[in-house]
Design a protein that fits this description.
With 346 residues, the protein is of the alpha+beta class. Helices cover 39% and strands 20% of the residues. It is built from 11 helices and 10 strands.
């Protein structure tokens, strides 16, 4: 046996003895480099092949290749073993108890005022109305003057609000969109039917029934030959859709600067059927909204001939409708973000 063969056999014995003792991938890599690397022990041994005879070289070459293949396979097996051991250790350390209950992610819902608004919108969309959005910061011109409330008119006190400048304010109603819609509408192509939902502001005390901000839906129909009968038929349909087919409507004379004649609309109590209870304050009726025929001055300011065109307008509050339908006795619950309150309407 040549000295090279002896050295390869000795290296093989050493390597096979050392390999099982390696405990991490870093040590395994150092071991591979020391045996099989460019400056490794096997490479140093094979440098002596130049001194061998032609007969010995194939024998030593085959022996070296067998050793290289065997030790390479063993190193790969050891690597997989170490990776598996590392993974098992990590899994043992990070074990999850899959029998524990998970963290519930509660699904939210739309706010009850949003639900109420959408329900009202669906009713009017079914009747061919369009929905228009408007500015919460309005001009005095559109908020008051175009609604037949000139400067210093005493009826402005009914809608005292927050002024930003002398001519800019937080709107007190969504009525400005009625004037803006009439300005933009081409009446040569037909009449106007619209509702304007949105937030409005009035300087008021915050208590169980009042708020400095609330939500309103105002409607307007302008066309030729519109009468009070059209208004009554429209609101009768809407109120029955909202509160039940057994509801009756009562009309009382009232005053609004932008309508003439003006009415307050009551519905028969949906709790007691008109017999009298705490909801209707023992009257059998519940005030629900204000309405009337569009004042000729409002039509004229929009460039319409009040002798040719007529219309009706109405306004209702989402908060009031929701409070009546769901028995809510404090308006402040809509704005406080209390989940106990909001979850009732999921």
């Amino acid at each position: 046996m040549s000295s090279l063969q002896e050295r390869i056999e000795a290296l093989k014995t050493q390597a096979l003895a050392s390999l099982p003792k390696l405990s991490d991938e870093s040590a395994l890599n150092d071991f591979r480099v020391s045996i099989l690397g460019k400056k490794g022990q096997l490479t140093e041994i094979l440098k002596g092949m130049k001194d061998l005879s032609n007969e010995e070289r194939p024998i030593i070459g085959a022996l070296a290749n067998d050793f290289r293949d065997k030790i390479t396979d063993l190193i790969e097996e050891k690597k997989q073993e170490l990776e598996s051991s590392k993974l098992n250790a990590e899994l043992a350390h990070e074990t999850l108890d899959v029998t524990l209950p998970g963290n519930m992610h509660h699904k939210g819902t739309r706010h009850i005022l949003t639900q109420t608004e959408e329900e009202i919108e669906e009713i009017f969309l079914g009747m061919g109305y369009e929905i228009v959005d408007g500015y919460e910061v309005e001009t005095d011109h559109y908020n008051f003057e175009r609604m037949n409330l000139p400067k210093d008119h005493p009826a402005r006190d009914m809608q005292d609000t927050f002024y930003i400048t002398e001519d800019t304010l937080l709107r007190t109603h969504t009525s400005p969109m009625q004037a803006r819609s009439m300005d933009a509408h081409d009446f040569s192509k037909g009449g106007l039917r619209m509702i304007a939902p949105g937030r409005v502001y009035r300087r008021d005390t915050d208590d169980a029934t009042h708020s400095h901000q609330f939500h309103q839906i105002e409607g307007l129909v302008v066309d030729k030959n519109i009468t009070m009968a059209d208004l009554k038929g429209t609101l009768d349909l809407v109120m029955k859709k909202m509160f039940g087919q057994d509801r009756k409507l009562r009309w009382r004379p009232s005053y609004f600067p932008f309508t003439e004649p003006s009415v307050e609309v009551d519905i028969s109590c949906f709790k007691c059927g008109g017999a009298g209870c705490n909801v209707c304050k023992h009257t059998g009726w519940i005030e629900i909204l204000g309405a009337g025929m569009v004042h000729p001055n409002v039509l004229e300011m929009s460039g319409l001939d009040s002798k040719v065109y007529s219309g009706f307008a109405f306004g209702m509050g989402q908060e009031r409708i929701a409070m009546l339908r769901y028995g809510i006795n404090d308006i402040r619950g809509f704005y406080q973000g209390d989940l106990r309150f909001l979850k009732q309407f999921a």
